[in-house]
What does this fold into?
Amino acid sequence: MQNNVLRLSWQVYLMAEDSNRDTLPGMGPLQEALRALLPRTKEELKLDLSENVHRSVLILLQQATNLFYEGRRSECLQTTEALLDYSWEKLNTGVWRDVDKDWRRVYSFSCLLKTMCLCETPGDATTVAAALKVCDMGLLMGAAILGDILSKVAAILQTHLLSGKRPAQGPAQEQPGIKKARNGHTSIPDTRSEEAVPRLHCPSLQYFRKHYLVPQRPVILEGVADHWPCMKKWSLEYIQEIAGCRTVPVEVGSRYTDEDWSQRLMTVNEFISRYILNEPKDIGYLAQHQLFDQIPELKQDIGVPDYCCLGDGEEEEITINAWFGPPGTVSPLHQDPQQNFLVQVLGRKYIRLYSPQESEALYPHDTHLLHNTSQVGPSMTFQLLPHPTPFLESRQMASLAFFRSTWRILTWRSSPGLLRPHSCPASCLLEKSCSSRLNIGIMCKPWT
Amino acid sequence: MAEERRGSWFGFGFCGFGQALGSGRGRQVTSPEPLRAAGTDAEVCSVSASWSYTAFLSRERSGPIPPGPAPTCPRLLLSWLPAPAGAGQVQLSGSARGAAEGCRDAWASETLLVVLRDGRGPGAGAELQAWAPGSALCGEPLWAQTVVPEAQREDREDGEGDGTRARPLPLLPGARAYVSPLSPLYRPLAPELRARRLELGTEHALLLDEAGQVYSWGGGRHGQLGHGTLEAEPEPRLLEALQGLPMAEVAAGGWHSVCVSETGDVYTWGWNESGQLALPTRSLAEDRETVTGETTGLSGHGPGVTGTTGDEGGAPASCIALQPFPALLDLPLGSDAVKASCGSRHTAVVTSKYGQLGHGDTTSRDWPCRVEYFVDKQLQAVAVSCGPWNTYVYAVQRETS
It folds into this structure.
């Protein structure tokens, strides 16, 4: 008799445990992999937040966590939606760099719970793609939480999506759509050799520092990035395969000084299909985005030039941005507050620099947002500015261009190439500020 | 015969913290529901809603309704109804609870609850108190200041006649200063401004003066200041676009602004990301694009966003993200507006015939849409007060003639 009772209660216990873990029929490897990332108990899933976060928000966070561990998925989704909207409002209040990091962490946490809820029930690829989008929003707008858990979630979701996908269609280079530049033929001025930026082959750190870094002179360093895997591996096809389903910010509009310039979020696949291939109607540019933090798989293909260690800051403070766009666009003359190393991976870019002495003649905008940008367009500079000092034409791949913050930069794409300042107009959803001293730009574009 | 034409409050929107909003069931109420006020003898006379809690100010039920036909225009109606006199009770509902007596006015925000109370002791001036919402109005306020008696006297001379609160919070009695939820709490105003009403958005402030002119200052990154730029303004600056047009009401939302002229015109400006300016917005246009072939239940009132040209890339060119200048609104059926209030990302306007918002679903709308509930129940909206994510409406039964 005793044994029966024991066995019965053991069976009951097992069933209770199962329902706690919400094991639905068909709970596949995806759900298990995601659950494994979370702590076992709700008490362990906690954020330490300052008192800047309202008491009411802490209440909702607790409620959402409880609901999730109790398996009350739809209620949890409702609560996290409120948290997402409220923290989103905080993220849109004031200047981006002044937004309290805790609000960004609340936002990330809400994205995490929402992603988990969306993946709880076995769903099709659309559901998983939607979950990945939410996850990406947390990575783009939020701040790292719980050991950078969102990156791990993204990796799992991406693997799951790719395993069900066919390989990317068609080789990139043969696409007829990209041959026709939107603005038609853009003429490029001749570069006279005496005005070109000097080129050196792998100078020593000391030489570089003494002759270029300290005196603030631009230079092209050849041979530095030859061995980077991206030089051989990167193509449209490859990018689509590795990062196609990830959501990224895209700048739409000819130039950021235009009134109809805006920033939108879309997947890399959507960006390529809408703004690179298929004769795009608008200019769209994946610009100045820390893509390699978001997608570590791509980071493995690039290196960091040794010269960056000559900067004042720590290595962690080096910001790596990606630029990815179609041919035929022009960036207005502007100034970056940091030194830059620029590597052109695919395509060609024409860059013109003006020395600090020319600032007077460059007519900066008088608004706060655009005070680092000249009002003078590229075609006018030839007539107005008497001493256009060194040109830089980055035709060759794997050259590293260096220019310091005090030089003005004008870029002109015959093929791809656009250099952005680090502060964008406030109407963007994602205005970011870099705090590092050195800033590496990587460009990847298709050939025309 | 004189019908009981007392009004009552209705609420709809977000109530995820259990703040009183009609039945308070669930996390949101999508259609207006009558508010249940605690305490049967008290009448709720004003509502100030923050995100997670609402403050209700109620007073003793006022005297009998005067005989004769009631005016139909809401502005006159409000003054015709007997105004409750004296101080009343503030009650909190939602994430913050508690009540306090002897209050004349209350203003709710997430970080601070500001209350204007009768002074303690005879002949004492009113006292302004700032409380932490979680304190349940017990213990000591975070900050308190006596209101200068001259200021109080000025107020009584100016405002009492029409029955509306003369200078509601966050504007302080005497209009020499206002209170802010962020430090510094007490902010002086230049007396030349002659402020009649002041409204605070997330990053900006709007001021309406005695002559009906509008001033704005603060952050301007979304065009909410209305001066035509995205620049911030450190000091109150006159809205030149509206100069010479006397305004009756102003309202500030999260990142947008609304004002109503004395002739009943509505002007909106600022951020339009959810259609809160009642102008077409790209996000909703794109949503409509994806709903192929389905009538989206638009009433004939809207400006009629016509079907897009099938351009999969762009939204219609007329979509507006930021409006840095005031834009004149076309209300349906040529209605005149009387009052306006703004939430974080929504706007509510009371017209002389209808009240707006609360359509029984959670879809955003970027055109003015009438709240049918009030029409169906023969109610006439008289006043509106928006919390960040909800709306409270004071409405009166129509006379059945």
Summary: The CA atoms of residues 76 and 286 of chain B lie 42 Å apart. Chain B has four helices and 23 strands.
